[in-house]
């Protein structure tokens, strides 16, 4: 069956065997692991995962044509979920000792990442996540304070996970070749992380600050708390700083204070 990538779904199929080998090595799949692959496409990585004999392999493919092809190709070796990953309930994915792989569509890659971070259960059972992003997005995820690339996704990602950039990937490793480079990131969930009531509150707090990225933070503090001097004194924050100057821990503390008043 001839598979034609759909531009509307951001499909770029990984074909480089060296990169496939690297991703498999990073996963370090054992017989006790349940593997979840998001967006398997034509199944090049799926085929390599099967060779590692995981306990279970769940593949999530939204595209009906691709899903049909995967079922024919891999038969009983996979559990196929032919749905949009963003619409799947957490409890439908929950398994012990999970490793999650994904060559993510550029247009929804951060939404998929945030879905996992929001979950109260998936990361607790997950050993490792290996995702491929557009290089620009990957650089924003791993960005540190005082960097122009540092922002909301940097803070939200580092809250629950340790993140490492492994390698950049040239466009010719894909079919069709995208116009930009990609990058592999490995996420390892933290066993202990700062507790807040709801990830969506952290998303909102960071949104308020980074909507005014070039402004001093007293503007955002006033929007959230009504009195920038009071909250900045309580948390020992210099209100003359700008959003990119604050550490992730500071945003988590601000989120806690915000949750007290909503």
Give the structure's gist in a few sentences.
This protein has 262 residues and is of the alpha/beta class. The chain is 37% helix and 19% strand.
Structure description:
The chain is an alpha/beta fold. The chain folds into 2 domains: about 5-190, Vaccinia Virus protein VP39 (Rossmann fold, 3-Layer(aba) Sandwich); about 200-260, rRNA adenine dimethylase, C-terminal domain (Helicase, Ruva Protein, domain 3), CATH 1.10.8.100. The strands form 2 sheets. It has a 7-stranded mixed β-sheet with strand order 4-3-2-5-6-9-7. It has a two-stranded antiparallel sheet with strand order 1-8. Helix 6 crosses helix 10 (about 250-260). It contains 10 helices and 9 strands. The protein is about 35% helix and about 20% strand.
């Amino acid at each position: 069956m001839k598979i034609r990538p759909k531009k509307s779904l951001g499909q770029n199929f990984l074909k480089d065997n060296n990169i496939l080998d690297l991703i498999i090595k990073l996963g370090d799949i054992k017989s006790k692991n349940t593997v979840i692959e998001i967006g398997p496409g034509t199944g090049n990585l799926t085929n390599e995962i099967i060779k590692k004999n995981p306990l279970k392999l769940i593949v999530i493919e939204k595209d009906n044509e691709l899903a049909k092809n995967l079922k024919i190709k891999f038969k009983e070796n996979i559990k196929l979920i032919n749905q949009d990953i963003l619409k799947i309930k957490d409890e439908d994915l929950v398994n012990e000792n999970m490793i999650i792989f994904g060559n993510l569509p550029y247009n929804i890659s951060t939404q998929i990442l945030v879905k996992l971070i929001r979950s109260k259960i998936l990361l607790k059972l997950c050993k490792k996540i290996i995702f491929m992003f557009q290089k620009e997005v990957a650089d924003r995820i791993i960005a540190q304070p005082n960097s122009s690339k540092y922002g909301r996704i940097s803070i939200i990602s580092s809250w629950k996970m340790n993140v490492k950039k492994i390698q950049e990937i040239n466009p010719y490793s894909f079919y069709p070749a995208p116009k930009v480079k990609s990058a592999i990131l490995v996420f390892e969930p933290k066993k202990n992380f700062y507790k807040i009531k709801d990830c969506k509150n952290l998303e909102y707090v960071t949104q308020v600050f980074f909507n005014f990225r070039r402004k001093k933070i007293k503007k955002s503090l006033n929007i959230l708390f009504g009195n920038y001097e009071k909250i900045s004194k309580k948390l020992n924050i210099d209100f003359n700083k700008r959003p990119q100057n604050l550490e992730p821990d500071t945003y988590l503390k601000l989120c806690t204070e915000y949750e007290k008043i909503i």
